[in-house]
User: Fold this.
Amino acid sequence: MTSDLDIARAAKKRPIQEIGARLGLEAEDLIPYGHDKAKLSTETLTRLEGRATGRLILVTAINPTPAGEGKTTTTVGLGDGLQAIGKKAAICIREASLGPNFGMKGGAAGGGFAQVVPMESMNLHFTGDFHAITAAHNLLAAMIDNHIHWGNALDIDLRRVVWRRVLDVNDRALRDVVTGLGGPQNGFPRQGGFDITVASEIMACLCLAESLEDLQARLGAMIVAYRSDRSPVLARDLQADGAMTVLLKEALLPNLVQTLEHTPAFVHGGPFANIAHGCNSVIATRAALRLADYVVTEAGFGADLGAEKFFDIKCRKAGLHPDCVVLVATVRALKMNGGVARADLGAEDVAAVTAGCANLGRHIENLKGFGVPVVVAINHFAGDTEAELAAVRDFVATQGAEAFLCRHWAEGSAGITALAERVAQIADSGTASFAPLYPDDLPLWDKIETVARRIYRAAEVQADPKIHAQLKEWEAQGHGALPVCMAKTQYSFSTDPTKLGAPEGHVVPVREVRLSAGAGFVVAICGDIMTMPGLPRVPAANSIGLNSAGEIEGLF
Assistant:
């Protein structure tokens, strides 16, 4: 079996200027990063403002399992499929984090014959955006400690510094650390810690910013600490927002690359959906919508996380109106949701597929609640049987939706044209009547409860009285209109990753809330979710290296 990396390496890429030309871009509109990737220039983004926009299609999925769902692969395949049927299409996905690449999840460029290239570059340093975010974040951390060291004129309470440091590597040993040891010359000792770069509020600010000026305003509004009287200290109070913006000047510009079939692909930003809002940048999505007639984008993990945040945070904040949702499922993943162990997935089990469809049905129902038409993409695996596929189709029909068998992984665009035709019809029909899940003026706690009860089907949401008091305090400070960003496990509707299928009546414990004033949302951390992942027992890094020809091996 040919690996994803081998397929990507054999791709006949076209010069990035030619890919831009498919969207009506001139060579001077692009800032090349080599021959196969480029950024859109600031002048180009300004020129595109005010243009009519195309149709927006969201690709999401059932809850992820080790069996694989192929959400990014389907996003890429659908973009290629729309191009193959004569549509002017583009795709918008997130950049890959080094943490998962060297940990357990792997890359984020699709797979098989539905990939974005250059795959190796995209899954490693790419255009340096994540490094710029890491540098800007840690510059702010250094400026906080430096301010305290030189007299603390802002009266920062050392016990209430909330700005941690970040690193784009999974490293559980850095979750809780003590800094400033070694005497007065090294500053004041205090407890801190590291998050992964994709959890940085700066990542969220960059992905939600509409311009360089908006980015600096968001960075300046970030809360970094509190004084003894509990009043917040902002990044702009430290005069750090200007320097951070300088570091992020190029990172804010969207990256343009191509699929194996040369469909234009905007790959920009990369917040995780289990600990952040899980969508690519607003600035890239808007640019794509002004350049293409159909834009296919994705939201991270399952629809209970990624799609909900795409609708309630990104679309709400950016004024986007999605026209269609594609919900990805696989027979293998449905069998796991139906109770089959991963080692037994090769055997036909129609009953397990039917049982696992409860997870699929829950997502269909939730997505319809946002007023957007839903179609199901069955991402085909070689071991799927006709009886199992029929069970999925039959179930989807009972939910008032359509299911399409998609073979884009093995066949490229030729394997997904039926879905592409139907999605284009739905997007053109104007039947979507999108609305977020809750209004802006709903109290913060009620927003948390609304998501937990209506999306997760929780019977109760629990939190310490201190959390309720904190939310009330933020409302009094003028933050009550912000949406909420739920941080929880991606593997279940509940906060227990072992509860597969469609659990209901469970309890969602909110153990912490964080105000992301710059990004513009309140994070509710539920259950045992971590903002700095750890490596598995056998990390992917063990298998990655260079061969005798100097080529990368083991990157998947």
Q: What stands out?
A: The mean pLDDT is 95. The chain has 19 helices and 25 strands. The first strand starts at residue 30 and ends at 32. The radius of gyration is 23 Å.
